[in-house]
């Protein structure tokens, strides 16, 4: 095969994430400009939904977090709640996704005062579609904590992905990115 053809194949498949990475450092997240693919998730009642239907037609902040058991995630969820009104005023909906079961989402929701929706990706469909799933040596499959801004036509307009689970995007920076994305 010609080198140019190999390069084209590599470019086309670079963000097609079917399997998880072996480590958090090896994930290949969706890039800015990519289209969010279809992925099945569940709401807190356990109803299956397609992520593209949940996101479609709205500016969205999509947060992937490790689970309600993670203290860093709980801090992030609370900080997100503190800027929720500002994000909504800008026209954004907030979607927070974890590998927790719908029942576990309800426990997390009861611990916090959240006005936004938590979704279950216990089948790891959305994590893999976004290219942020990896195999954790002790906890099984997890997402690298991530933030994506998605346009109404399902295009990624911003992303923050940090393999070090201790570092999360501060709320003020997320708000600035959201404001920038709307101007």
Strand pairing plus helix content: what structural class?
Answer: alpha/beta
Low-pLDDT stretches? 1-18
Shape label: globular
- Helix and strand run: HEEHEHHEHEHEEEEH
Say what the CATH topology is.
Glutaredoxin
The main sheet comes to: 5 strands, mixed
Helical residues, percent: 25-40%
Query: What distance lies between the first and last C-alpha atoms, to the nearest angstrom?
Result: 45 Å
Radius of gyration from the alpha-carbon trace, in angstroms: 16 Å
Describe the secondary-structure layout.
Elements: H1 3-13, E1 40-42, E2 48-50, H2 51-55, E3 59-64, H3 71-82, H4 84-89, E4 92-98, H5 102-111, E5 117-120, H6 125-130, E6 133-136, E7 140-143, E8 146-150, E9 156-161, H7 171-182
Parallel strand pairs: 3-4, 4-5
Antiparallel strand pairs: 1-2, 3-8, 6-7, 8-9
Write structural notes for this entry.
The structure is a single chain. This protein has 183 residues and is of the alpha/beta class. The longest helix has 12 residues, at 71-82. It has a five-stranded mixed sheet. The protein has helices at residues 3-13, 51-55, 71-82, 84-89, 102-111, 125-130, 171-182, and strands spanning 40-42, 48-50, 59-64, 92-98, 117-120, 133-136, 140-143, 146-150, 156-161. The chain has one domain (15-182): Glutaredoxin, CATH 3.40.30.10. Mean pLDDT is 89; it is low at 1-18. It is built from seven helices and nine strands.
